[in-house]
């Protein structure tokens, strides 16, 4: 397949997959936002911190999912003379913001839980259980929709982690309500909230570190520069590869640039195609800029 046709096919496939991701995130946002209102009412009615904490989490999750959805919409826009790579990087920025938001949510839940442990309040276990079970159903539906979209996209993974945090929060609320109904021991509510916040922090760190890696234009995770140089230098006709740089616009769009010195008599176009083939075959980098350098006697 000619290179131009290959890139057009790859772009169409990525575009279609982006539509699927956008639809999945949009559905999850609607489910999350709709139930959030019911959970706020349930938390105020029952006095449950677990429900209120989860409702606060769902509020920020709704904003995060809406931001993710907007990122996919914005990524549809074509490149222009100022943004020659287009708007795909906005989805990585959205993932980074969502990851930072998870840190804030976890800290808020932990602080509120400590205050509740110091000053316990009455919690109505029955209504709390009913609202938490309904929330579990909504979160499972949202998680299923996002999970079907796949985890190749960092923005989708960030959105999925927000929903997973909600799901864990509702599970914690269900367990807390059952303990309260059986024993009347209300401290279980803030204790489980703290455990949920720890799980959220773990997920948040993963999203923030991965999105920061892309934003800082580090090499893709599976790209080893030393290995790449060894394989590129082994291409017939190539004397030495230097100034090799690899980075990602998004996780799905890795790129590379390099300069290659050729051996005397080597054909530049043949070497260029061979170098690009190595990057595509061995490292999944379809978009590479290769500059061929010749010695003065070969110029």
TrEMBL record:
Residues 221-293 form the Cation efflux protein cytoplasmic domain. Signal peptide: none annotated. The chain crosses the membrane at residues 24-45, 51-72, 92-111, 123-146, 158-181, 187-205. GO terms for molecular function: zinc ion transmembrane transporter activity. InterPro entries: Cation_efflux, Cation_efflux_CTD, Cation_efflux_TM, Cation_efflux_TMD_sf, CDF/SLC30A. Its main location: membrane. NCBIfam families: CDF (TIGR01297). This is Cobalt-zinc-cadmium efflux system protein. It comes from Silicimonas algicola.
